[in-house]
Amino acid sequence: MPKSVVGTAVMYFRRFYLNNSVMEFHPRIIMLTCAYLSCKVDEFNVSSSQFVANLVHESPAGQELVAEQILEYELLLIQQLNFHLVVHNPYRPMEGLLIDLKTRYPTLENPESLRKNVDDFLTQASLTDIGLLFTPSQIALTAILNSASRAGLNMESYITECLGLKQDKETLSKLYDSMRRMKIITKKYELPKPEVVNACKQKLERIHAEGLRLVLSRKRLIFPDDSR
Amino acid sequence: MDDQGCPRCKTTKYRNPSLKLMVNVCGHTLCENCVEMLFVRGSGNCVQCDTPLRKSNFRVQLFEDPAVDKEVEIRKKVLKIYNKRDFDFPNLREYNDYLEQIEDIVFNLTHNIDVENTKLRMEQYQKENRDVIQRNKAKLTREQEELEELLLLEQQGNEQRRLDVLQEEQRQLQAKRKNKQALLDELEQSQIPATILLAKHKARSAQLETEIEQQKQSVKPTSLFSTGIQQSQTVSLVPIPRIEEVLYQYTLLKVDTYGPPAPDLGQLGRLGSTSQALFFRGAAVCVLFSLELFSGDGPLCTGSTCTETRHQSGYLNHVRAALPQDTAGGYTTAMACHRAMQDAFSGLFSL
């Protein structure tokens, strides 16, 4: 699955839960729906049956149930995203910046050596919130500068000269400021511990089971004669 | 058109698309064959709801949903009784209330809610307003008669025209036949040589033909244009007033990208540090060109274009080259490169 599809799916997931509660919509289903939708949007189409066939943990009956649920939630997801389905991921800006480096900045010998670290940084960044806070080109630039500084190379001259910022001190300082913030956020993020995760999972299951029961009983009140 | 098939024999609707479904007063459908079979004795019970029915109650279904047909039947019956018109009421509000009453009754009867009360109400209303109902019935029939008369007149006009056309044709045929007959007779009897007779005959038949043509093309003079204006009417030709406005001036669209300027699509092949260009020339040539390259932008541009057929220069040599299949479709490497550069540079400076 191309990286942009994964990036898009993660962005959908984040944006959805900005406006909706985890208690109302179980994250597992929403996660599957986000992945399915982003495959469609990013032209990496998989049919729904193929998609659920990849869920090896489920029995075939369970897979069909999941397929139905995905189709139910898809429209809701699109609606909650405010129908903004195009997500700009930092991967293309990163490629563009690498091209620019190779073309206009010969001081840096081999930008390709930075690529692995850049990818790692971007994956780590997608686990945090910075996709919601900064533009994708800024994220890509931070990633490249970060991996360059890790390799011990100094890229300040690139920013000041090639990006034409020699005169514009204010923009320069703002840029540095946001890059610093991004670095802090990404560094500080760590995966939550399994015990915490399990406790949350149990709470979710309990609340969702109760919610389901409530909905069913309410349905029975309004439509007592549901034989039609 | 085929919903789910007849509820009894199920298959026949698919196999026989010309088969019709019949509806009756309880709202359930049966195909023609099943009606025949079940109601061979004239009366029976409905298959789905067991209400006693008569065969004569079945009508051919007009609508896809049998419930709609049932409602249409009920509405017809109700409206026979509740047939007051809008001028019977002193104000609009009362007329609307009356209409709402009718709708309530139809709804109740269709969905089998409170059927007895509704029927009682209907009978009461009928008793009270008997004379009003009679009067309105009479009015209705009068209007219908007028409509029918108009239709009849139109039909008669059409018939008349058709007969006229037929007669004309017959007359023309007869004229032709007489002409031919006359020729044969003359050939038999007269003394004039045959060629002259033939010539005369040809002239006469040509004359006949032109007459027929003229008759066909003669349009009856009418007095009205197609828009309804009389032909003799003169329409005043007031000149249309001229409206003068400021002409639209095109201004180039400016897009603020909040970032450093990205290179243009056309320049992607040429821009780039001079060392790159040097790397792509042969050693001998590079000595010659290097002086010119450092002096100005002009030679750099021309130099790179002459070799671009095989090597890409500037930005483009860091992008995957376009295959012949891609270029055939109109794709150029510059497109992908340009897009990546735009994405990299836009939004770089914060707001």
From TrEMBL, chain A:
Domain Cyclin N-terminal residue range list: 4-85
Keyword Oxidoreductase (UniProt): no
UniProt keyword annotations, A-Z: Cell cycle, Cyclin
UniProt cross-references to Gene3D superfamilies, sorted A to Z: Cyclin-like
Biological processes annotated in GO: DNA-templated transcription; regulation of transcription by RNA polymerase II
SUPFAM superfamilies, sorted: Cyclin-like
Pfam families reported in the protein's UniProt record: Cyclin_C_2, Cyclin_N
Source taxon at top rank: Eukaryota
Molecular function terms from GO: cyclin-dependent protein serine/threonine kinase regulator activity
InterPro entries reported in the protein's UniProt record: Cyclin-like_sf, Cyclin/Ssn8, Cyclin_C_2, Cyclin_N, CyclinH/Ccl1
Start and end residues of each Cyclin C-terminal domain: 89-185
Cellular component per GO, a single term: transcription factor TFIIK complex
UniProt keyword Cell cycle present: yes
The protein's assembly and partners: Associates primarily with CDK7 and MAT1 to form the CAK complex. CAK can further associate with the core-TFIIH to form the TFIIH basal transcription factor.
Job of this protein: Regulates CDK7, the catalytic subunit of the CDK-activating kinase (CAK) enzymatic complex. CAK activates the cyclin-associated kinases CDK1, CDK2, CDK4 and CDK6 by threonine phosphorylation. CAK complexed to the core-TFIIH basal transcription factor activates RNA polymerase II by serine phosphorylation of the repetitive C-terminal domain (CTD) of its large subunit (POLR2A), allowing its escape from the promoter and elongation of the transcripts. Involved in cell cycle control and in RNA transcription by RNA polymerase II. Its expression and activity are constant throughout the cell cycle.
Stated family: Belongs to the cyclin family. Cyclin C subfamily.
Name the record gives this protein: Cyclin-H
Native species: Neogobius melanostomus
From TrEMBL, chain B:
Single Gene Ontology BP annotation: nucleotide-excision repair
Top-level taxon in the UniProt lineage: Eukaryota
Keywords on record: Cell cycle, Coiled coil, Metal-binding, Nucleus, Transcription, Transcription regulation, Zinc, Zinc-finger
Keyword Calcium: no
GO cellular component: transcription factor TFIIH holo complex
Function: Stabilizes the cyclin H-CDK7 complex to form a functional CDK-activating kinase (CAK) enzymatic complex.
Main location (coarse class): nucleus
GO function terms (MF aspect): cyclin-dependent protein serine/threonine kinase activator activity; zinc ion binding
Summary of subunit composition and partner proteins: Associates with CDK7 and cyclin H.
Recorded coiled-coil stretches: 115-218
Protein name listed in UniProt: CDK-activating kinase assembly factor MAT1
Listed Pfam families: CAK-anch_MAT1 (PF25811), MAT1 (PF06391), zf-C3HC4_5 (PF17121)
Matches recorded under SUPFAM superfamilies: RING/U-box
Subcellular location: Nucleus
